[in-house]
Amino acid sequence: MIADHGLRVPSGHFDYEGMDSKLEYAKELGVDYVVCPMLPKPMGSSLDGFQKAAEQFNKWGEQAQKMGMRFAFHNHNYEFQQFGNTTGYHTLLAHTDPKLVSFEMDCYWIAQAGRDPVKMLEQHKDRISMLHLKGRKAGFPTSQQLNSDAGHFTEVGTGTIDYKKILSLAKQQGIKYMFVEQDATSIPPMESLRISYQHLERLIA
User: Taking the CA of residue 202 as centre, how many other CA atoms within 13 Å lie in the half-sphere pointing to its CB?
Assistant: First the structure.
């Protein structure tokens, strides 16, 4: 179906559980990046869980590399809970091999976690290979818990996230893939996508 429509799939999200069996499917789809979008809930709530995930990511990264693909992890906000003097996200960064594991940074969830996507790009430019783009409404508190209170989505370019700086940095750093990914919309999805597209046209001009 993808080929029939003249399209290709640069990346895909594949669940942590059962990842081994999904690598062949990812290869068949022709993806460049096999992305794990989420840790299983018990695993994402402890430092030990993040350390085990990092170990597993290295193994999958090696498998993906042998198959001509790259492995990456996509963040939400829960990875930024503090465990002593570190976070789950920084544990993944510290315990994964840069040659095998990269990161798809979701700019919204970085901001929702109380972090600055621009600074994250600057600090981890060698690890971040892809971006997810969506806007964040003003006036809502940040959080590190992934629940219904954490979703304040809006179209790219209409919220508080500085996408002009982000896109400029992404270009400098050679980030090839960026995706508009808005979890929920208050208007019809195609209308929402059109607004994001129009803002992105202006921002990258």
Answer: 9
What is the structure's pLDDT at 155? 98
Q: How many domains in the chain? A: 1
Domain carrying residue 90? 3-203
Residues facing residue 131 across a β-bridge: 105, 178
Measuring CA to CA, which residue among 122, 107, 100 is closest to residue 76?
A: 107
157: amino acid identity, one letter:
G
Phi, psi of 6 (to 5 degrees): 70, 30
Q: For residue range 50-93, what is the model confidence (pLDDT) as tens digits?
A: 999 999 999 999 999 999 999 999 999 999 999 999 999 999 99
121-138 CB burial, b ≥16 within 10 A, e <16: beebeebbbbbbbbbbee
**Residue 38 phi, psi (nearest 5):** -165, 145
> Residue 94: in which H helix or E strand, if any?
helix 88-95
Indicate which CATH number applies to the domain containing 53: 3.20.20.150
HSE of 23 in the Cβ direction (CA atoms, 13 Å)? 17
